[in-house]
Amino acid sequence: MKIDSHVRAIPGKPFIILQLTDMQVIDAAQQRTPTRLRPDEIEAWKTEHVEQCCYAPIRAVIEKTKPDLILITGDIVYGEFDDSGRALAGFIRFMESHKIPWAPVFGNHDNESAIGVYEQCRMLEKAPHCLFRRSTNLTGNSNYSVSIEENGIPVRVLYMLDSNCCWGAADPDTSRIYGMADDQIAWMTETAQSLAARYDHLIPGFACFHIPTEDYITAMTNAGYQTESDDDGGNYIIAGTAPASGIDADVPSPNTCEEGNPQTVLAPAHPGDTGYKNERMPRGRFQTARSAEFRSAHVDGVFMGHCHKCQISVLGGDSIRYTHGVKAGTYDYHTRGRIGGTQITLTPDRNTFNVTQIYV
Known about the structure:
This protein is of the alpha/beta class. Helix content is about 20%, strand content about 20%. The chain has helices spanning about 40-45, 50-65, 85-95, 115-125, 180-200, 215-225, 290-295, and strands spanning about 5-10, 15-20, 70-75, 100-105, 145-150, 155-160, 205-210, 235-240, 255, 265, 275, 300-305, 315, 320-325, 335, 340-345, 355-360. The longest helix is centred in the middle third of the chain and has 18 residues, at about 180-200. The relative contact order is 0.18.
């Protein structure tokens, strides 16, 4: 099984990956019906406000982390507000301006755009620094692999996976199934096994997609970061997590949740656990558990998005770290001060990594 894209790491130095998720750029000028958005939403999400709502916080977190690679776990645009493709094109130009390799997957809203998934894929594939490759033989459209290499040898592989579920799309080439299909999981496992056979050792991997799997809910519940009776998700923060920032204090933000004070401060259940949560994650709402398949593919880190006010990184009982990324902008619902990104630092041995939630 071939690797689709390659990124070079410098031996002996940490390798920094920045996870961005759920920008959900909304261009209010493109709403399909005049009553889809409220007046305050139309004002806040005008075309010209994309800088303060999205680009400014992302620019700040890039400057803070100085990443070697950026991965995006879905919902770049809220597709029903980008039928022209203008918002996606603008975001691509913005990302390309940093001249950093970046690897996106689609979320459940991206492919709602009337321009169609093929055109969205074409736009991403022609961007020089974008590693995206459209999958033509697997369920979904954003399945591809990225290897981090030293001296031409893979030391870690990112499996970028389409979690599908874009029910609002009219394009028949968009998959409406819920979650990853078996053929996608088989591709990941077979690629990992092929690499192990070729290089005569296991190569650790990250699985990156949009909608969480039930493994994440289990890991949070077992760690005490959620109880089955959390009707509203609570207002929790793990001790040691960075405080909220003030970058969006003056940004018009409809549907904003104020963080609230005091919060329930939880001790980390495992070294390295971090994050903030103010959103219920009920069982049965997310993808099928995939722990066994992740382990078969030598995956020790899973990175997801989708839930804008859940930003917990937790070590599961399966020794896999499950991380929900920080929302990267102020479009749609979010917690004020809890926007930015997630820094993943690969240690020089590439076998271990740590996660830091960054609020800018």
